[in-house]
From TrEMBL:
InterPro entries: MATCAP. This is Uncharacterized protein (TIGR02421 family). Keywords: Hydrolase, Metalloprotease, Protease. The lineage of its organism: Bacteria, Pseudomonadati, Bacteroidota, Flavobacteriia, Flavobacteriales. One of its GO terms (molecular function) is metallopeptidase activity. It comes from Formosa algae. Its cofactor is Zn(2+). One of its GO terms (biological process) is proteolysis.
């Protein structure tokens, strides 16, 4: 990157700043009188904005583009020459070059005005019009419209042209003027922050899609996707906010803090009393003050991030952390349950129907407990073998195994494995759980930790469902998904529905034990997990995630790119955007099951619509 500090007295030329264009390079430099250039050398387009007073928000619109120029408040002739020389340089290199000057319309206007050679660029300008019309407006009492004007006057009427049409033609370039209705601010110039974020995101997408049509047809550029016309680099301040978000989330372990520490005692008490007696859940002391963390959380200036994709991800994550901190304060109270419904978006009727179908079609195997069992120590050795498999792929991989008395479930937290000291399982279950916990949760944590954004390791908002969907799918792909295991996932959904209908602990236990024929141990485990914290719906997402993932694969999605970190299916487009911009990297390590002889066969069956109940 060529990064130059320029004093207001100097007047650097294009030739001085950019002696030659280099693939993968960029020029970032201040220019006289408040001007600024951010130029990706391989992008044959430029967004231009003339610096003005009382024009809040408009300059931020262009900062989300890959290449942009802010014209200083003085020295018009200097900037005119600068743009002419830059246009010559870029056109000579790419065969053509497109410039878009962005300026705001009058207060009260709700009309985008596109000024350009519509007869020469019918496809690009039609794409621009269609995409601008998609910007959210009606729910904000705004009714946006777009008109395309074929005119040689590309700038606002009161301004001089930055490029003469004759010069543009000589250089084989194109200039488009775009008047933006300032609906994102009030009559006093105050920006509406929430609407502006939506507006900017959709506005820059419209620009990118239209420009890409021009680039694809008119230039020699090798860009393959409109996402490449977005921001490629992340400002240092964005990295700082990313790390601060992660530090706040890493200061507490949510799942560990909502899990009871006395579950083994409660289980023994419940069984010894013939399913009658159950004492209160006891929890770990909170190592943090949720209110202080919330204060830190909302001190983060996410609203000032000009990259729409990252701004969206961070804002969404902040809301999720806020919700978790609220739930930590509510442990053991009824409000915890209501917050849980909000965090996991309730329970869909179609998912409940799927769960009931599984329980009807797959009988409980009561003899499974008689199979050869392995204990926690033996499972830990299997986990170590899997860790070594990852280390062979990347020598930097490292993780630990914790065997503890105060853990009631097997889980991975921050990439490390936690095991209950009294846990036993069949060898088949062990094979499945290795891929579930290590081959998915530990793996995606590590892959996420290798990404530029630390949030990819700790997890973007609502990542749990996809994570658990991949984890259960890995059990199927490794040949370890049993009928009883699938029944447990279905039982959790049925239990979640019962919880939402007001069921008490004993009522839910007997529903699973008597009506659905679960063993007393499985019925207790499902029920006790559902009541931790005061009512916790997280367990429904295992089956929900599997169903959604199966549907994603049926629609042509691929599995391996989902292993690059922790994110949700609704983030796919944003992740693709970041991947195209080099901000999300391919997975460093991959799970063992990808190399199984029957991997492609099993995936093909899923893509053809294999019913969930047939995955065992």
């Amino acid at each position: 990157m060529i990064n130059t500090e320029v004093s207001p007295e100097s007047m650097p030329t294009v030739k001085q700043l950019i002696p030659k264009l280099e693939c993968g390079a960029k020029t970032v430099t201040r220019l006289p009188h408040g001007g600024f250039l951010f130029l990706e050398h391989d992008v044959p387009s430029l967004l231009i904005y003339r610096k003005k007073e009382n024009d809040s928000g408009t300059d931020r619109l262009i900062r989300a583009g890959a290449s942009y120029l802010i014209v200083g408040s003085e020295s018009f002739q200097y900037y005119k020459t600068f743009i002419e020389d830059l246009t010559t340089l870029m056109s000579d290199n790419f065969g053509s070059f497109i410039l878009l000057e962005i300026f705001s319309g009058n207060t009260g206007s709700q009309m985008f005005k596109v000024r350009g050679p519509s007869h020469k660029l019918p496809v690009s300008l039609q794409v621009l019009k269609n995409e601008l019309l998609k910007i959210k407006s009606r729910q904000y009492n705004v009714n946006l419209d777009v008109c395309v004007e074929q005119t040689k006057t590309r700038q606002t009427v009161s301004e001089k042209p930055l490029l003469e049409i004759s010069h543009i033609k000589q250089r084989g370039a194109t200039l488009i003027g775009l008047e933006v209705p300032p609906v994102f601010r009030d009559e006093h110039g105050q920006v509406f922050p929430l609407y502006f974020r939506d507006f900017q995101d959709q506005f820059i997408t419209a620009i990118q899609r239209a420009v890409f049509e021009f680039v694809r047809v008119q230039t020699t550029s090798s860009l393959t996707n409109y996402h490449a016309l977005g921001k490629r680099s992340i400002h240092e301040e964005v990295f700082k906010i990313d790390k601060q978000l992660t530090e706040i989330e890493n200061s507490y372990q949510f799942l560990l803090l909502v899990a009871p520490v006395n579950i083994q005692v409660l289980r023994q008490q419940f069984f010894d009393s013939q399913f009658k007696k159950l004492d209160r859940y006891h929890y770990r002391l909170l190592p943090v003050d949720p209110d202080i963390l919330k204060r830190k959380l909302y001190d983060l200036r996410i609203d000032e991030i000009d990259d729409p994709a990252i701004s969206f991800l961070f804002d969404e994550k902040r809301a999720e952390i806020d919700q978790e901190l609220t739930m930590l304060k509510e442990r053991g109270a009824k409000n915890f349950f209501y917050s849980s419904i909000r965090l996991y978006s309730g329970l869909d009727k179609a998912l409940l129907a799927e769960a009931e179908l599984i329980l009807q079609n797959i009988p409980e195997n009561h003899n499974e407990s008689q199979h050869a069992l392995i204990d926690t120590s033996e499972f830990g050795k299997l986990a170590k073998q899997e860790f070594d498999y990852f280390k062979d792929q990347d020598s930097h991989f490292n993780s630990k195994i914790h065997i503890r008395d105060d853990v009631n479930i097997m889980m991975v937290s921050k990439g490390e494995l936690y095991l209950p000291s009294d846990y036993t399982m069949s060898k088949n279950d062990a094979k499945a759980l290795i891929q579930h916990e290590i081959g998915t949760h530990a793996l995606t944590y590590y892959n996420g930790s290798q990404q530029p954004l630390t949030q990819m390791a700790s997890g973007l908002a609502n990542y749990d469902a996809l994570q658990e969907g991949i984890a259960v799918l890995s059990e199927y792909l490794s040949g370890g998904l049993s009928g009883n295991r699938l029944r447990i996932l279905a039982g959790r959904v049925v239990a979640g529905a019962a919880l939402m209908n007001g069921a008490e602990f004993h009522e839910m236990f007997f529903k699973l034990y008597s009506q659905y024929d679960f063993t007393k141990e499985r019925a207790f485990n499902i029920t006790s997990r559902m009541f931790q914290g005061g009512g916790f719906l997280k367990d429904i997402i295992y089956l929900e995630g599997l169903v959604r993932l199966r549907n994603f694969l049926m629609e042509g999605g691929e599995l391996e790119p989902l292993l690059s970190g922790k994110f949700a299916l609704h983030h796919i487009d944003v992740i693709q955007d970041l991947r195209d911009r080099g901000l999300v990297l391919p997975p460093k390590i991959t799970p063992r099951y990808l190399n199984n002889d029957d991997f492609n066969f099993k995936i093909d069956k899923l893509k053809k619509g294999l019913p969930i109940s047939k995955m065992i």
